[in-house]
Amino acid sequence: RSLGNGKHARSQSPLKFFAEAKKSINDVFKDIAEYVKESHAFLNALPEECQCDKAKSVEEFGNMIQGIIEVLTRNHMKVVFFGRTSNGKSTTINAMLRNKIMPSGIGHTTHCFIQVEGCDSSDGFLLTEDSDQQKSISDIKQLASALSKVKLKENSLIRILWPKQKCKFLREDVVFLDSPGIDVTPDLDDWIDKHCLDADVFVLVANAESTLMQTEKNFFHKVSNRLSKPNIFILQNRWDISVGEDDPEEVEQVKEQHYQRNVEFLADQLKVVDRQEAKNRIFFVSAKETLISRLHEDNKTPTPHGSLQRNYQERAFAFANFETAFEICISKSAVKTKFEKHSQRGRNITSSLKSIMEETYQKCQLQGEKLQDVKGEKASELDFLEKQTLILTTEMKDKIKAMVEEVERKVAYAMNV
Ligand code: GTP
Ligand code: MG
Description:
The protein is of the alpha/beta class. It has 13 helices and 8 strands. It has an 8-stranded mixed β-sheet, sandwiched between helices. Helices cover 57% and strands 11% of the residues. The longest helix has 62 residues. The site of magnesium ion has 6 residues, from helix 4.
């Protein structure tokens, strides 16, 4: 694959960084697995005098690599949405999915955590924590609604498996997590431990009609105590409401006030980004309008009169800009957090393998010298050993060296997004 092509493909969707890196790292590990297998067979065939003590661990490397490959295939990018009740978390997710999947409504609606992830089947289904049985998507309202009679625990998780073909985010391995309002639970620590430690991006859905509240700030202070420098976006949602205000100048002032306070929060208080970058993390949107217009666009039906407010395009652009910034941020962050540790383990395994082979080579040489003295008596054994030593010096040693270099290079390429 030429670098030029790679760059071109990357510029199409930033989310592809993740898929590309995942594939490259996966290929690297498949190669390492092959080398380990070969080395294991080679070492096993050597006479006992030439075996180095550590040779036994080569077999273990094989199992470790299989384990890593399994974890890698399950890895995804995770975004979690938080905010006070009714700020529009569920509506925002629906707008991104271009589908009304999450229950939304006035009052306290979402009662537990709902995760949306992609599946290969053409129909979606639900899974709850207590059973493997697939449930119908239409049960979601019943299961997740605060108004429902049968209540799941607030920190419990419902998984929605939704067809990948219906949404580009799901196709590229993004997983969405919706949460109940942070103002309705006393147990935020428990939420963070259970649902947030593997999150790549947090989206704070705030209400543009009011300023950031202490409950919202406290939550993110807790998050940044547990995770170093979490990636946070702030959506000032319901910005369509501002259209009803009489004085446009005042609306601009309100916008400026929101900017100031949010920048202060992200840069000065949480210290997760600098002031310049903080500005790029704040968006004035209307999830409701974006959802309505996208649904009608996809159905090729006109949007009903009055459902989109004046200057709607501005908020639609802001929503799309948020999505682009989000795509870049989440794929970069996920590659780093999800793959870096594995790449390091891959490097460790290959360099351990290299030193085992080197030690074995030295033992073989030593054994060869010893046998020189008794040549004649044990000519056939020496022949065999000489041959093996030759293979080690030429073939195997070069191969292992090349492998270590290749792993370094491929990992560097995969991580370089
Ligand atoms: P909980 O699940 O209760 O925590 O609320 P939520 O944050 O998920 O809010 P939800 O998406 O259910 O939206 C609450 C209400 O606000 C719904 O009636 C939405 O239609 C409405 N809403 C969401 N986004 C917007 C918006 O941008 N503008 C306006 N005007 N209304 C919105
Ligand atoms: Mg909700």
